[in-house]
Amino acid sequence: MRIYSIVFLDIDGTLLDSNHQVMPCTHNRLRYLHGRGIPIVLCSARPPEGVNLVARQVGVQGPMACYNGGLIFDGNSTILRDVGIDIQLAMDFKRFAAERFPELVVSAYLYDVWLAEDPRQPEILQEAEISGCTPLRGTLEKAAAAASHIHKLLCMGDAMRIRALQKEIPQHFPQLMALRSKATYLEILPRESTKRSAVQVLLANYGLDPEKAVAFGDSDVDIDMLQYCGMGVAMGNAPRQVKEAADYVTASNDQEGVYIALNTLRLKAPGDGRKP
């Protein structure tokens, strides 16, 4: 039976249940593995503040990949990777979205700053409640004075309009990648920001091969990570295409899916011959 030495976990829809909480058995299992030296890597499109909020909930502080792999930290909070969208390109995209899809809400993230032109918009308030992050009133034009790039643009709104915008991006903005993290959310990222690239950076940091990694996910943004790792686990609540890309399909995020799958695997710490 194959032995794994590192766990990569998507957050929303995977580690967190529908109430945005970590289920008790999953919580205990992750704490146990962390205590035995297994790196537990939270890998999400969230900003650092949002990832750290979940890490504290689990009680596991370690390496993390934010913005879908655009901003990566090791276990000592040292930045291993920092890539983003050129600020002028971000402004061009925002103008395009405002002209073609004015009903959608577009906000921007850089490091731990979340910029929204109107933080009181319902979509912004809802995301703030889910992620635990606080939006700041501001524009990309003002951010350009202090930053050369941003890490992510988030478009929120009606699912059909989100899909319509996604279809137009390859033609108008080939430098950018547009992935739906849920039906009403479209994440706009640089093409280099993928969860697969995050896995590659962190495996190199630990000196591990992909075969030693297990990854969990539930959405399109997770597919490349699931396919790259030695074991890719799709959640029971994932759509068909994600399940087809995985090696194993576990129960849903509301049914302790992460815990169930982890209990079927053998894990040991990197460089440690002991079986946890």
Characteristics of this structure?
6-stranded mixed beta sheet; Rossmann fold; single chain; Hypothetical Protein, Haloacid Dehalogenase-like Hydrolase, Chain: A, domain 2; 276 residues; alpha/beta
By CATH, the topology of the largest domain is Rossmann fold
- Principal-axis shape equals globular
Q: What is the fourth-level CATH superfamily of the largest domain?
A: HAD superfamily/HAD-like
Order of helices and strands: EEHEHEEEEHEEHEHEEHEEHEHEHEHE
**Average pLDDT for all residues:** 93
Name the assembly state: single chain
The total domain count is 2
Count all strands and give the number.
Answer: 18
By CATH reckoning, the class of the largest domain would read: Alpha Beta
Structural class: alpha/beta
Describe this structure in words.
The protein has 276 residues and is an alpha/beta fold. It folds into 2 domains: 3-82 and 193-267, 3-Layer(aba) Sandwich (Rossmann fold), CATH 3.40.50.1000; 85-190, 2-Layer Sandwich (Hypothetical Protein, Haloacid Dehalogenase-like Hydrolase, Chain: A, domain 2). The chain has helices at residues 24-35, 48-58, 87-100, 122-131, 140-143, 159-172, 195-206, 223-228, 240-245, 257-262; strands at 3-4, 6-9, 40-43, 64-66, 71-73, 79-82, 85-86, 105-110, 113-116, 136-137, 149-150, 152-156, 176-182, 185-190, 213-217, 231-234, 248-249, 266-267. It is globular, with a radius of gyration of 18 Å. The model has no long low-confidence stretch (mean pLDDT 93).
In short:
By secondary structure, the chain is α/β, with parallel strands linked by helices. It is built from ten helices and 18 strands.
